[in-house]
Specification:
Blueprint lengths: L17 E8 L3 E8 L1 H15 L5 E7 L2 E10 L4 E8 L10 H15 L5 H5 L3 E4 L5 E5 L6 E6 L3 E9 L2 E9 L4 E4 L3
Antiparallel strand pairs: 1-2, 2-6, 3-4, 4-5, 7-8, 9-10, 10-11
Length: 186
């Protein structure tokens, strides 16, 4: 018999279980966002299945119109049957460099979050860092005459996540040179 599942799942992500996406860079600031790593969310679901004494979770993808959806199914004690929660792909999720994989991964993350898996990270807003805090480099046009955009030159690695009341209250990044960067500002 399946034990009652704790929803939302209370296993919080560690800093090594998130990935950084650069959303936008101007000459004055860079806007970034954290996403849960897909493998970390799969681990959370597997741990929850084991704790509940349930069959392994199930995943199915389908399309509706031009959108890809994912359905994550778990066994529930209350109904004694498999219950599915569905979500569509997140349009601004660009992590792997492969649009089809990003669509598949983001729909899985969104559907798993409906069960509570990695929800604090998905609910977290984008973070904005000024050019005084991170290195921003201009990108020239092919002829070298104009600037066509800007890139974040710093490599940021998430090294700490702090939680308060189930929400992320602190993120620490470490730059390549070892300097620390905190969000929100202390």
């Amino acid at each position: 018999m399946v034990k009652e599942r704790k929803i939302p799942m209370d296993r919080l992500l560690r800093a090594d279980e998130v990935v950084l996406q650069v959303l936008e860079v101007t000459k004055d600031w860079a806007r970034v966002r954290l996403w849960p790593k897909v493998d970390a969310v799969r681990s959370i679901l597997e741990e929850d299945d084991a704790a509940a004494g349930a069959a392994p979770y199930s995943v199915r993808h389908y399309s509706c119109g031009r959108s890809l959806f994912c359905s994550v199914g778990l066994d529930c004690a209350a109904d004694n049957e498999r219950v599915y929660r569905d979500a569509c792909a997140i349009s601004y999720y660009h992590v792997t460099g492969d649009p089809a994989q990003d669509e598949c991964d983001s729909s899985f993350l969104a559907a798993a979050s409906l069960w509570g898996a990695a929800l604090p990270v998905l609910r977290m807003p984008a973070m904005r860092f000024s050019a005084e805090k991170v290195q921003i480099n201009p990108v020239a046009t092919p002829d070298g005459q104009r600037i066509k955009g800007y890139v974040l030159a710093d490599t940021l690695t998430c090294t700490e996540l702090g939680y308060e009341d189930g929400k992320i209250s602190l993120v620490q990044f470490t730059k390549r040179n070892g300097d620390k960067l905190l969000w929100p500002k202390a």
